[in-house]
UniProtKB/TrEMBL annotation:
One of its GO terms (molecular function) is hydrolase activity. It holds the Pfam family Isochorismatase. The keyword Protein biosynthesis does not apply. This is Cysteine hydrolase. Residues 7-180 form the Isochorismatase-like domain. It comes from Bradyrhizobium xenonodulans. The keyword Hydrolase applies. InterPro entries: Isochorismatase-like_dom, Isochorismatase-like_hydrls, Isochorismatase-like_sf. Keywords: Hydrolase.
């Protein structure tokens, strides 16, 4: 008899990131939101649990203040009735929320994590999932990040940041997979 279905954790797929890109910030994985939509479809078809995470900014200049346009979820990742939305105010979806309690109450031990950004809220949530004992998979083509300037003024590409973050997480905190891997695993059951 198969165990409980994995849960999809969709982190911060909010309009602020489109606004950042429109303002000139460069990102990687331009098809990430389409892959997230594919995952949502597969989990919904399978009847597997989905948890939507929203970031609510606390600094006055945050793009994620609830009254700002950037707080809105992107249409492709919008929740459907019955899919919980969990609002966080820090990087981890487990801090200051009831996500862990909901997962444990549902006897959910396996998580599939996607969203934005790879090296911030996705990474922090994935690290905590691993530390809390969840069997986590991070979907490499369903997350993205932006170029950054380093401490010494060096330019770091979104691709390099994304790759290094995935390397740091792989094996110890999560398995790194693709959206196709996850969807194929449902078909194989």
């Amino acid at each position: 008899m198969p165990g409980p279905l994995p849960a999809l954790i969709v982190v911060d797929v909010q309009s602020a990131f489109d606004e950042w890109e429109a303002a000139g910030k460069r990102r990687n994985n331009p098809d990430a939101v389409a892959r997230i939509a594919d995952l949502l479809k597969a989990f919904r078809t399978r009847g597997a649990p989905i948890f939507h995470i929203r970031h609510e900014g606390t600094r006055p200049t945050s793009s994620f203040l609830p009254e700002n346009s950037g707080y809105a979820v992107k249409d492709e990742a919008r929740e459907e009735p019955g899919e919980p939305v969990i609002v966080k105010r820090v990087n981890s979806a487990f801090i200051g929320t009831d996500l862990e309690q909901r997962l444990r109450a549902g006897n959910i031990t396996t998580l599939v994590i996607c969203g934005a950004t790879t090296n911030h809220c996705v990474e922090t949530t994935t690290r905590m999932a691993g530390n809390l004992g969840f069997d986590a998979s991070l979907v490499r083509d369903a997350t993205w990040t932006f170029d950054r300037i380093g401490l010494d003024g060096d330019q770091h590409s979104a691709e390099a940041i994304h790759a290094m973050t995935l390397s740091n997480l792989n094996g110890e905190f999560a398995r790194i997979v693709t959206a196709d891997d996850v969807i194929a695993s449902f078909a194989a059951e």
